[in-house]
Amino acid sequence: MPIPQSTGSHLKSIRKKSLVGDIAPAFNPLIAGQAMVDGLNYLKSRLGWSGIRIATILHLPPNTLNTWLKIGNVPVSSSALSPDIQAIVHLLAIHRSLEAMFDDPTHQQAWLSTLHPELNVIPEKLMGKSIDGLIFIRQYLDYVRGRGA
Asked: Does residue 136 sit within a domain?
């Protein structure tokens, strides 16, 4: 049986469409800001942290963070995140890792407040010293989780 020859008029090129563009919605700063507040409120309730404690770790003025929490939105202006927003993302990633490692929030709190010989530091204190400390703890937890913890 002969194979019909195509004229090419009914063939579509995948180059004309973006596969990601059809699936991923456009970045919405309002939704992103609300999601960050949801994450921070969950962190507050899960670990029993105050807004001041979180602000200290994020190196933000407590009034700024508490205002964001009160209005229910962190002002995200674009998908290119400011350093303040990046710090929130790092803190939420740390919490995500701790949630994956420990079901019990008291164990998560203990991990953050205990001196670790392999780090030679108390993670919460290092996170409160600088943004670099926050990033270091995130990278360490990502490494530990990647190794099966």
From this structure: yes
Looking at the structure of the chain, the number of domains it has is 1
Total number of residues shown for the chain: 149
Residue 104 lies inside a defined structural domain of this protein: yes
pLDDT digits (tens, 9 = 90+) for 14-57: 455 555 555 667 888 889 999 999 999 999 999 999 999 999 99
